[in-house]
Automatic annotation (TrEMBL):
Keyword Transmembrane: yes
The keyword Transmembrane belongs to this UniProt entry's keyword annotation: yes
InterPro entries: PAP2/HPO, PAP2/HPO_sf
Key words, A-Z: Membrane, Transmembrane, Transmembrane helix
Name the record gives this protein: Phosphatase PAP2 family protein
A Pfam family per the record: PAP2
Length: 245
């Protein structure tokens, strides 16, 4: 009975998603805020294309190496501790735990739009990163003994920790900013600093080149805007339905 109810709810969620993305009425839902998300997405993809072009043509090789060697000089036993923590905060165990916890919360509270937006963010972000990694076979720096030993068998480009952390923490920060508008910019700042710290920790750990991290930010920010756009369209449709009733 429980499995049947789960399948029923899952089917309802799929149908809900299809209804939200009715492209016939898409343009009627556009607002300045939605157009902004689209422009930010295009800007992010342009940045990713620019970085990728430099990496493929080996134009960033010297810059990557010089930055990594400069980072190595900052290594201290004391700094190793927070860098390990930040790196783990961008890891799959923590991010999956956060995503599952929020999904259960939204499910129980019947917040379908929040749940749908979270699934787009977490599921889509992970899929996009895996697909991009599959198209590259970049070797990790390994200029020194890595501070951590995780996912060394996957492509270094782009950083999955950075991509997924930016999408999930970014979407959570966006929702918190909506719920607590008075503290919005403080929440956004805290989210930004956390994501920047995660990116720095991956270079500090010796597991990613700087361009891997930058590409992770570009792809993550692009998909974050897709997730927010999806959420905003659903909210706008819901508001229009209520006004018509």
């Amino acid at each position: 009975m429980t499995i049947f109810r789960f399948r029923q709810k899952a089917a309802q969620l799929v149908q809900f998603g299809k209804k939200q993305f009715n492209f016939q009425s898409f343009f009627s839902l556009l607002s300045p805020g939605l157009v902004q998300q689209i422009l930010l997405f295009l800007l992010s993809m342009g940045a990713f294309g620019y970085i990728t072009n430099g990496v493929l043509n080996l134009e960033t090789r010297d810059l990557d190496l010089n930055i990594m060697l400069a980072i190595q000089k900052t290594h201290t036993p004391l700094l190793d501790i927070p860098m390990r923590i930040f790196s783990h905060l961008g890891g799959p165990i923590v991010l999956i735990g956060i995503s599952v916890g929020l999904a259960v919360k939204f499910w129980l509270r019947r917040q379908r739009i929040e749940l749908f937006g979270l699934l787009v963010a977490a599921g889509g972000g992970s899929l996009v990163n895996l697909l991009i990694k599959a198209g590259f076979n970049r070797v990790r720096p390994l200029l020194w003994v890595p501070l951590l030993h995780d996912h060394l068998n996957t492509s270094s480009y782009p950083s999955g920790h950075v991509t997924n952390a930016l999408v999930i923490y970014g979407f959570c920060g966006y929702l918190l900013g909506r719920y607590f508008p008075r503290w919005r910019w403080l929440i956004y700042l805290g989210t930004l600093l956390l994501v920047l710290a995660i990116g720095w920790s991956r270079m500090y750990a010796g597991l990613h080149w700087p361009t891997d991290v930058l590409a992770g930010y570009a792809t993550g920010f692009a998909w974050l805007n897709v997730s927010i756009l999806s959420f905003q369209i659903c909210k706008r449709r819901e508001k229009m339905r209520r006004e018509q009733v």
